[in-house]
Amino acid sequence: MTTKPLVGKVALVAGATRGCGRGIAVSLGEAGATVYCTGRTTRNQRSPINRTETIDDTAEMVTAAGGQGIAIQVDHNDPAQVEALIQRINTEQSGQLDIVVNDIWGGQHALVWEQKFWQGDIHTNLNLVHNSIDTHLITSFYAAPLMVARGQGLIIEVTDGDTLNYRGHSIYDLIKTSVMRIAVGMHEDLKDHGVTALAVTPGFLRSEEMLDYFGVSEENWRDAIAKDPHYSESETPYYLGRAIVALASDSNIAQKAGKTWASWTLMEEYGFFDVDGRQPNWGAYYAKVLEQG
């Protein structure tokens, strides 16, 4: 990035351990922002799904990219921990919090896509809902007053898909469409206070977990196309991160409030590139596949 449009801005990325959260946090740092990177997994506390990524690593990547990364271990399902986090940001940044990104999900390992809603374990399904919806509500509840007090700010919900079409699993569908509706509701409550709320979605994500699933790395990800031809149009988590940087840098951002925006749609408007120099357009690709199918 030749310019740093977010120098002096303060961001919170809730769920910054891996995937989109990490890509978003690092991209905000690349743009010059101070980024609080939160999550449960640290170098001292192993991931409950046995992944190696940590918020400490993410914060260091933010700093290396040109921003200031600050890792804080937070369970966003615990209101007391989130309240303490926001109080710390308030103290350290003199009340400034410009960007909040709610990206907590982490439920991919618990989904059994073939199961109907009455099958499987009800406690697993309820935990998915708590971890992926409650956390967003709790974080925004405590963060929004800082923004309202200053009459400015941006709250972003990260979902999957920019329509209300069914997403293949009832609990997953409930979560991802609920996140979209959270953005709608927050917009209605915040629109008279100078704060913008909206949702964003990536396309076919080339996350750490997906790379592992296909048995490839970022260096040879194209080898996975032989297993899944659709992977040819995949994107890294940094693509959505750069979309969010573009949104946060747009002086007319309020015009996008309450809606869900896709990485490919924002790419067409703002012209950013993925870290590999590509401009994948999952929406156009998917539409073409449907036409051919």
From TrEMBL:
InterPro entries: NAD(P)-bd_dom_sf, SDR_fam. This is Short-chain dehydrogenase/reductase SDR. NCBIfam families: PRK08303.1 (NF006159).
